[in-house]
UniProtKB/TrEMBL annotation:
Entry annotated with the keyword Transferase: no
CDD domains cross-referenced by the UniProt entry: Sortase_F
InterPro entries, sorted: Sortase, Sortase_dom-sf, Sortase_F
Biased composition (Low complexity): 24-47
Top-level taxon in the UniProt lineage: Bacteria
Membrane-spanning parts: none
Region of interest called Disordered, as start-end residue ranges on this chain: 14-47
UniProt GO molecular function: hydrolase activity
Keywords for the protein's UniProt record, in alphabetical order: Hydrolase
Entry annotated with the keyword Hydrolase: yes
Organism: Parafrankia colletiae
Record protein name field: Class F sortase
């Protein structure tokens, strides 16, 4: 398990005016202890199509699609790697989500992270309605091998980006957990970025 802190930042905007902004993902420091390196993960839970099958040893297959019926989301999941400066790039396509490949796959033991844009200069993006989720809503993550993992939402929070409680959001849970993240709150025109992060907490069924 990695013990160093990873600075995992997804851009929530680009330079320029609000009218041409490209907005939508995450800004947060992620403790690596909460996103274990995949080769050493053990005791993970693998889901079969339609339901999670329970605990299984070793890692699971990479995610390829996320489905959130309550808000009408069915979108590809693309891998997002850390850049040289320690930042996690936002998905290049506003209809796609991105998974932090330096953390566990969804369904492995640890905190998996899937992020997406809230909007763009053309309108709503993939996680525009993420703020509407409530406890009990389901999240399905399909994998490249045809299996899937099902998660249930436990809560939704909104934090200022400069005061995000990284340990609470990304810290180790002792079980497979999932965080869905986008931007929210008011828009800072000077920085061309939203001021907050909207974070959905979910656990493997």
């Amino acid at each position: 398990m990695v013990s160093l802190l990873l600075s995992v930042l997804l851009g929530c905007g680009t330079s320029g005016s609000a009218s041409d902004r490209s907005t939508g993902a995450v800004s947060a420091s992620v403790p690596a202890s909460g996103v274990s390196a995949r080769p050493t993960d053990a005791g993970s839970a693998a889901g079969e199509t339609g339901a999670a099958a329970g605990a299984a040893a070793g890692q699971v297959a990479d995610p390829v699609r996320i489905r959130v019926p309550a808000i009408g989301v069915s979108a590809p999941v693309v891998p997002l790697a850390l850049a040289a400066d320690g930042r996690l790039e936002a998905p290049k396509v506003f209809a796609e989500t991105g998974w932090n490949v330096d953390g566990p796959e969804p369904g492995e033991n640890g905190t998996a992270v899937i992020a997406g844009h809230v909007d763009s200069h053309t309108g709503p993006a993939v996680f525009f309605r993420l703020r509407e989720l409530v406890p009990g809503d389901r999240v399905q993550v399909d994998r490249v091998d045809g299996s899937s993992a099902e998660f249930v939402v436990s809560r939704l929070e909104r934090y200022p980006k400069d005061r995000l409680p990284s340990d609470e959001v990304y810290g180790p849970t002792g079980r497979p957990a999932l965080r869905l993240i986008t931007c929210g709150g008011t828009f800072d025109q000077a920085r061309s970025s939203y001021r907050d992060n909207v974070i959905v907490f979910a656990d493997l069924v």
